[in-house]
Design a protein that fits this description.
The chain is elongated. By secondary structure, it is mainly α. Helix 3 packs antiparallel against helix 4. The chain has one domain.
Length: about 100
């Protein structure tokens, strides 16, 4: 049951981070080209929420993989595992997109 709560918090923190990032001008007045405010927004709000989401997803993956045989209900294993893998893959895709050299 704790895994479902952890993955719920991970999804919620990722959604909050993405919504705040999309509406950062309306909520915080941060313009697209304003480097100093973009950096402070990313360091103070966006990056911690995304890292919290990835960390909770890794914890869920570890807990499910170590206790795989003890769990008898299949959906209690698969749903949190699939969701946490999707969050981790989204994070990896974002990192690749950030560090990809533009051609």
């Amino acid at each position: 049951m704790i895994d479902i709560i952890l993955i719920g918090v991970a999804i919620l923190s990722l959604l909050i981070a993405l919504i705040l990032n999309y509406y950062r001008f309306q909520f915080f007045g941060v313009h697209e080209g304003d480097a100093a405010n973009n950096f402070s927004f990313n360091v103070s709000i966006f990056i911690p929420l995304v890292l919290l989401s990835v960390l909770l997803s890794l914890i869920v993956n570890y807990r499910i993989s170590t206790n795989w045989k003890m769990r008898t209900i299949l959906w209690m294993k698969l749903i949190p595992l699939i969701i946490s893998c999707l969050i981790i893959l989204l994070f990896i895709f974002q990192i690749i997109r950030i560090f990809r050299v533009s051609e």
